[in-house]
Design a protein that fits this description.
The protein is mainly beta. Helices cover 0% and strands 54% of the residues.
Length: 239
C-alpha cells in the first residue's frame, strides 16, 4: 500500500541569524522534531538564504553525502582538498565527506543574496576518501520533463554519490507534467516544490512544500502554475 507524508512549507523549522535565514524540513541544529528526523536516507533538506558578503566559515563534515543546489546568486566554495569554485543557478555540487573534510561557503556578491538548497544523504560506504564534484546543467533540458542530476553511477547523468539515490529536476508550464518511475522497489521519493504549485498523485503542493511517497512504483506530477519547479529525490527507505 502506498504511503505518503506531507510537510507544508510553513511547518518547517526556522533559524534566523541575521546573515543567514534557513528553513529546515528535517531536524537540524537547534530545530528538533522527533517526527521529522529524516525521510529514509535523506537526512537534511535546508532552504538557505545568505546575505551579501556573508557565509559559513570553515567547518568539518564526515561520512555524509552533501549536495548543494543554487537557486539564486553566486556561492563561493573552498575546501581542504584545495578546491575553490563558485556555484550558480544551473549548477549542482556534491561532496562525499568520507573520512573528513573541511569547507567554507560564502556569498560572493557584495550586494545581492544567495539562495540555495543544502541536502545531506546518509552514505552507504563509510570512511571513503573525500571527493568533490560540480557540474553545470542547462535548465532548458528540464523544460516540461524531469532531468536526472544525481545518481549512484559516476558514468551516468549528473553528479554521483555513495548511495542508491537519484535526483531529478523539472520545470513545467501550467497544465504540463510528467510521470516518474521509481528505480528501486524499496526506495521512496521525496518531492520538494522549489517554485509554483503542482499536483502529485492527487495532492496539491505549493512553493517549498515537501511530499514523501513510498511503497509506490510511479508518481505523477502536474503543474498548476506557470514555471513550476520540482526537485525529486529518490532515496532508500531502509539504509
Amino acid at each position: 500500500m502506498k504511503n505518503t507524508v506531507l510537510h507544508k512549507a510553513e511547518s518547517r523549522g526556522e533559524a534566523n541569524h541575521g546573515w543567514l535565514h534557513s528553513r529546515h524540513t528535517f531536524s537540524f541544529a537547534d530545530y528538533y522534531n522527533p517526527r521529522r528526523m529524516n525521510f529514509g536516507a535523506l537526512r537534511v533538506l535546508n532552504d538557505d538564504t545568505v546575505e551579501a558578503g556573508r557565509g559559513f566559515g570553515t567547518h568539518p563534515h564526515d561520512n555524509m553525502e552533501i549536495i548543494s543546489i543554487p537557486l539564486e546568486g553566486d556561492l563561493e566554495h573552498k575546501d581542504s582538498m584545495g578546491n575553490v569554485s563558485v556555484i550558480r543557478y544551473g549548477d549542482i555540487q556534491v561532496m562525499s565527506a568520507g573520512t573528513g573534510i573541511y569547507h567554507s561557503e560564502y556569498n560572493k556578491s557584495k550586494d545581492t543574496r544567495v539562495k540555495f538548497l543544502q541536502i545531506w544523504v546518509f552514505t552507504n560506504r563509510a570512511n571513503v576518501t573525500p571527493r568533490y564534484d560540480q557540474i553545470t546543467l542547462d535548465p532548458a533540458e528540464r523544460h516540461n520533463k524531469f532531468r536526472q542530476v544525481l545518481s549512484p553511477d559516476e558514468k551516468d547523468e549528473g553528479v554521483w554519490i555513495y548511495q542508491d539515490a537519484w535526483f531529478h529536476l523539472g520545470t513545467f508550464d501550467k497544465g504540463m507534467g510528467a510521470d516518474y518511475t521509481v528505480k528501486k522497489s524499496d526506495n521512496g521519493v521525496y518531492a520538494f516544490i522549489i517554485k509554483g504549485s503542482v499536483t502529485i498523485d492527487g495532492t496539491v503542493l505549493n512553493e517549498r512544500d515537501g511530499f514523501g511517497i513510498w511503497n509506490s512504483d510511479k508518481i505523477s506530477v502536474m503543474a498548476n502554475s506557470q514555471d513550476a519547479e520540482v526537485l525529486l529525490m529518490e532515496v532508500p527507505m531502509n539504509y
